[in-house]
Amino acid sequence: MQKKRNITDDYMTVGELAKKMGTTVRTLQYYDKEGVLSPTAESEGGRRLYTYKDMIKFHQIQSLKSLGFSLDDIKNKLISLDTPAEVANVLDQQALYIQEKIQQLTSSLKAVEALRTEVLQMQTVDFKKYADIIVNLQMNNEYYWLIKHFDNDILDHLRSRFDKESGGVFMERFNQLNNKAADLQKNNIPPEDDKVQALVKEFWDMVIEFTNGDMSMISKLVEFKDDISTSSDSNNEWTKKQVNVNEYLQPAFELYFQKAGINPFEGE
Alpha-carbon distance 259 to 197, whole Å? Predict the structure, then answer.
């Protein structure tokens, strides 16, 4: 700290700096104590003096603090401001931090709005489902909206059976089968065709994999299918495609079960 400076227009007392920057003397004293922003000089009368460079540094500190950085983090991010290039570098860094924060806040806003939509569509208050939706939103799972259509048994099964990675892989496989079915439907391939029957077998194998062989869950999956087809989500593209595929494959499934001697509802 420079000593014994006269108070001129180039220097400010702690009170003057606090007033200019819309902060408190206590905040500046705390920053001084923590070694984040100390006065540049001291007057002959012992008053601690700040410069306009200190003012710019204070602005940098406050900007970083508003973005969630701790004072320890800020200490490591502060650089000297002795040249235009260094000042510009500081501003570039602040702009980058702000852009990152905007992206985070935008994602948070979208998640809040999505959760609000789901909450209003659910018939009862269910904090467990709310939590599942939040987790899936944080994982950027685009199928988070399906959660409200599952009952608690299926949700418990999903929680125990799948994690983020395995759940995403399973959903991708399921969508690939839907795409194959849509192509067969487009080409008017009949239910008894070997290609359709092979595809139905792949779907059924996925059902067995999903339920872990628990046939009591089949009726719940049927209820889930019926629920989304008649809900407010019935107009989104994924649901429309799913409904069309279900209608196309229904006779193929019946034929497959008949040939294989399978009763999907046996034991319920």
Answer: 10
